[in-house]
Structures are given as structure tokens and as C-alpha cells.
Amino acid sequence: MIPPTTGDNAEDPRADTDSVPASESAESTGDSAVDWDALPGPLCTRLAELAAAALGEMRAGDVPVPLRPVMRFAVAKRAKLGQSNLLAAMRDSAVFRATVLEWCRKNRPGVLEPWQSDPLAAATAAVLLGTVTAPHYVELIGYRSEHGRLRERCDSAVSRAEKLSKENERLRGELAEAREAAQRAEQYSGADADRLRKRLRQQGVQLKEYKDEVARLGAELERLTESKDRELSEIAGERDRERGRALDERARAQRADREAEVARQSAREARRGDEVRLALLLETLEGSVAGLRREIGANRRGDEISGPRPAETVSGVRAHSGTTDDVPDVAALDRLLALPAVHLIVDGYNVTKTGYPDLPLAEQRDRLAHQAAVLAARSGVEVTVVFDGANVVAVPNAGPRGVRVLFSEQGVQADDVIRGLVESEPRGRQLVVATSDREVVDSVRKRGAYAVASAVLLERINPG
């Protein structure tokens, strides 16, 4: 709370500003709680003058619609006649308020000094800059305006009392003269002396009434000053409490929004993953059913089914899965790739360093990706090549057509990415992992994938 000034300091504006903490002089990052509809008259006039001057330099298309009728007026007339519209535009339009602020910085930088000796100028700067002290300055200007009005009333009463006192002195002089005249003409004019005494008594009563009025107005001024001080203190405390509650509510709302967004994103990702897995599983089942129908149709003899039973076929397939020895040659690999909806996952550097380790890493990646693209085009299988991204400076935007090329993130090994790819596939889809890394082989076998040695894959994809 800024205490009112009295006595010799009543006209010293520094007495009203030195009590504001220096920590509140910085610009607020949020909107100050200024009630634009309850600004004091002097502050409204000052803001309207600045807004009217800034309005003259705006382009016609950028001028708010309510202000366009006053554009043709001069600056002074514009500020006087369009004051309400100018203040409403500054209240409702952040763009117009920023335009006025920028004009002041360019043309009148002294207006934006927050610690000016004139409280009205300091309040103008605080409102334009939107500082946290702006509401207090607005209250200070309102208080000073109210105090000025009361002071004018008090000065008027004092002036009237002085006039009455002078009139009383004049009447006393007249009375003295009348007494002298009465003494001279007492024997002739006793009635005139009574009339003058009566008039003197009336003037004395009137003078006493005026003095009582002056005393009453002084007491009223003191009471209003104390009441205003208490109200300002209570308002400041309540606003601090409301600001704290608003900050707490905003923090809780932002935290709830972030948690809700994370939950929605997780649900969307999970739903997309389930949809992809379901689609791949359906594709695998459709291919398997079509293959079984063709197989049954080709081997059916009357009511008997020739060839091995389905259980025996599955047993035979699984008997050749799990280790690098399970796919001993290219023929076994071709049989695996002929299965419906097969997904071939290649351990990139494990294969390239087995086949052509002398080439630079970039050329190794490029060569393997193009060879895998040829294999995908011929066999129709889905191919994913995984490289370790630790030493890759520039990750390519896309690989060859028909091949998905992935790079592990910093701190993540390509082996973990391969395990994640196998884990993400639906149960029942045929997966083939090309690697000679024993740990990778053992981990993908547990998830139902086939393992083929890097040398066997190189024999299949190398020309000649």
C-alpha cells in the first residue's frame, strides 16, 4: 500500500513512487489485472492522447473498425472525441495495444520510463508495459484524484470561511463606525443601533456555521483518507491471494492437460500398433489359407489325402528353425521366403562386415540395401534392414524401393531394434532374421522367428 501524502509533501510525486518495491519494476510476462473500465480520468486522458497520436501512423487496413470514424480528425480532437473508443480498442485489441507501445518506444521513449517522478506518467508507463504494479498505480491515481476533489472542496470551504472572516472584519469595522455614529446620535437613532446590533449577531452566527462546516469537511476528508488506505491494503492482499490461487489452478490445469495428451497419444499409438498387427496377422492367415487350399487341391486323390499330415509338416518346419544351422543353404532359405506374408529382418552391419568388410560403411549400407531391394522385388517378401546409428552423421531420408532401412537411435544398439521388431509382429506371422550374432539368434528364436546365417543370405543376394 502506498500511503497518502500530506503537508509539505502533498505535491512531491516522489513520495508516492519511492515506496514501491524495486523488484516490481520489471515487465510482467502476463497481462496485468487492470480494469480498463474503471481507469481514473487523468489516466484515461493521457492514454487516449498517446493512442490518438499512434493511430495517425497506422495503415488504414490495420486500424480497428470502431476507430475508423475518428481517423479524419486531428490528434487533439481525435483524443477528445474518440477517447472511449480508443480506450476500448486498447482494452480489447492486443494488436492495437502493441502498436501504441511500439509507437511510444519509437517516438516518445521517455513515456515508457516506469520510475518517473510524475505518478501519472509512471502509471501510464506501467499500464502500457503491462507490469504487475500497473493496478497499484491505477489505484494511486484514482486515490490522488479523489483526494484532489476533496482538497478542492476543503479549499473552497476555507476560501468561503476567509471571505466570511473578511466580511466579518468589514462588518466589525462598520459596526465600530456605527457604534461611534450611534453614540453621536444615540438620542436621535436608538432604532438604527438596534438594527446594526441585530445584523452583527446574524453575521456572527453565520460565521460560526461556516467554521463548523470547515471543521466537518476536514474530519470527513480525514475519514475518507483512512478508509481509502484500508481499502487499498485489503484489495492488495486479496489480489495477491487471488493471483496465487490462479497460478496454482493454472499449473494444475496444465499438468492435467499434459497427462491427458500423453494418455491420448499412448492410446492412439497402441491402437495403431494393434491395427497394424491385426492387418499383418490377417494377411498371414489369408496367405496360409490360400496356400493350404492349393496344397490340398494338388494332393487330393478321391477321399484320401496323400503326403504328410499338417502336423507333420509343421513339425518338419520347426525342426529346421532356431539356429544358423537350421537354414544351412540357399535352398532352405528360398523355402522360407516362399511362405506367405514373410518378413525378412536383416542385421545390417553383421551381414556387410561378413560379405564386404573392406568397403567404407556408407558404401556397405548402400550395397546391402540395393541387393535387398532386388530380393524383395523377386520374392515379394517384406524386407527391413537395421543398422547401428551411433556413427551415422546424416541419416538418409528413404531407402531403395521395397526395402525399409532403419537406424538405431543414440545409445540404442541395432540388436535391440531387431528384437523390438520381432516382438512387435503378431503371433503366427513368419519372421526370418538374417544374422550371425548368437545372442540375437537365441533371443529371436524364443519369439518364434527363424534365423539364417549372414553368409547364407549373402550367397542368396550376391549376383554371379
From TrEMBL:
What is the superkingdom listed in this entry's lineage?
Bacteria
Q: Mind telling me which InterPro entries this protein's record contains?
A: YacP-like
The cross-references to PANTHER family, in alphabetical order and at most eight, read: YACP-LIKE NYN DOMAIN PROTEIN
Provenance organism: Actinopolyspora biskrensis
Matching entries from Pfam families are given as: NYN_YacP
Q: What is this protein called?
A: Putative RNA-binding protein with PIN domain/regulator of replication initiation timing
Per the record, which residues fall in region Disordered?
1-35, 229-252, 300-323
* Compositional bias annotation for Polar residues: 20-31
